[in-house]
Amino acid sequence: MGLLEIRDLRKDYTSPEGELQRVLEVPSFTLEAGEQVAVAGSSGSGKTTFLNILAGILPADGGSVRFGEVEVTSLSEAERDRYRARELGYVFQSFHLLGGYSALENVVLGSSFGPGGDVAQARELLTRLGLAERLNHRPHQLSIGQQQRVALARALVGAPRLVLADEPTGNLDPRHALEALELLRELCREQGAALLLVSHDPAVLDSFERREDFAALNRAGATAEQEAGS
Fold first, then answer.
1. Residue 132 resides in a domain
2. 88 lies in a domain?
3. I want to staple 62 with a disulfide (CB 3.0 to 4.6 A). Which of 10, 36, 146, 225 is the partner?
4. 163 Cβ contact list (under 8 Å, min separation 6)
């Protein structure tokens, strides 16, 4: 059994005209413990919805998402929140850092919902990522690349078993993008975490041994992706 197993996963939305639209239909997908996989997907293809369901942020409308021994699709919203805090790290394209808090506080707050993170571990990760002199800086005092490193530390604090990354280099220039990607992959390897990354950047995708095409995974095809809360 893989770390993550998906069967017949479905997600529907209602259009402004009241029509039911299927945006996600993934018959099968498996990720092994410690494996690193890149998924190629264009904007609007449903890939963010896919990751958000795996993370328990969105509920599925059908099918199965099994993480280890946990059937994620059968969990309540509160149980999905606990599952996400305990098992997952998530790197968002737009970082989602809290503007009123320092780099260290952003990482510590991210770890406070799970069992393993603490101030010492947060400080160690940020130092490892070259931010030892920026621990008390707030996001607006950091460069885009530094903000991305804070986001990486927040995702990895607490040693999650799976890290999800949604276009994690999309806001970076090519040089910093590849640096951030290598840091993310190296830290996942060191912690034994599996990595599932989605991107449309050929340079990012080509660096992975296993690469999947989301258009082939998702039978619903390319649609106008709609995100809850957007």
1. no
2. yes
3. 10
4. 88, 89, 90, 91, 155, 156, 184, 188, 193, 194, 195, 196
Q: What is the pLDDT of residues 38-93, one digit of tens each?
A: 999 877 788 999 999 999 999 999 999 999 999 999 999 999 999 998 999 999 88
| β-bridge mates for residue 22, sequence order | 12
Q: Is residue 166 part of a domain?
A: yes
3-class SS of residue 4: strand
Distance (Å, rounded) from C-alpha 14 to C-alpha 2? 33
State both tokens at 102.
């320092």
Residues 163-217 have pLDDT tens digits of 999 988 888 888 888 888 998 999 999 999 999 999 988 989 999 999 999 999 9
Of 117, 110, 127, 169, nearest in space to 144 by CA: 169
pTM as predicted: 0.89
Q: In whole angstroms, what is the distance from residue 93 CA to residue 116 CA?
A: 24
Number of structural domains the chain divides into: 1
Cβ-proximal residues to 211 (8 Å cutoff; 6+ apart), any chain: 37, 38, 39, 40, 205
Structure-block tokens of residue 105 = 């506080």
Q: Measured between alpha carbons, how far is 35 from 89 in angstroms, rounded to an integer? A: 15
Identify the CA nearest to 39 among candidates 137, 131, 152, 168: 168
Q: CA-CA distance, 151 to 126, in Å (whole number)?
A: 10
